[in-house]
Amino acid sequence: MSVASIKQALTDRHALALTIWGEARGESVEARIAVGMVVKHRKNHPRRWPREWRKVCHQRWQFSCWQRSGGAGNHEAVMRWARYFVPDDTQQQIPNKDEYPLVMECLYLADGIMQDVLIDSVRRADHYYSPLAMIPPDSEPSWARNRAPVAIVGGSRFFRLAV
């Protein structure tokens, strides 16, 4: 299957969980929840973003884990798990047994975010970035210049840009 067809076949739950995992697996559980909340706030915005979780996650240039240009190694790791979750006629093994517990936790967090049972610690933020993930490190994206973050969780700064 092509990358596009795999992304299309993912459920909203799997797309959200893999976005959380791909964007924040090296961070705390609070930071993983915060990334999921950004997806939720975008999905719930009345005009600016798609209304489906999966489409928000896969929107071009938004979540680097879904873009090869955002880091080929991370993108390939996310796509290995995406292939695992897409049903097909072949028996698939777990892509990486060491990653399995954290991926399962991200599925659990995705459920909590989608069911509105987790607390929004990022105050309806719809954007974020991690200074250490920027190229060059510690730079900031143009959209964040002269803006104060509404929250800082782990190594990321969270912003509410859509009003």
Descriptive account of the structure:
44% of the residues lie in helices and 6% in strands. It has six helices and three strands; from the N terminus they run ααααααβββ. It has a three-stranded antiparallel β-sheet, covered by helices on one side. A hairpin with a 2-residue loop joins strand 2 (151-153) and strand 3 (156-159). The longest helix is centred in the first third of the chain and has 16 residues, at 29-44. The mean pLDDT is 94.
Please describe the topology of this protein.
Layout: H1 3-9, H2 12-24, H3 29-44, H4 53-58, H5 72-85, H6 100-114, E1 127-129, E2 151-153, E3 156-159
Antiparallel strand pairs: 1-3, 2-3
Helix pairs in contact: 2-3, 2-5, 2-6, 3-6
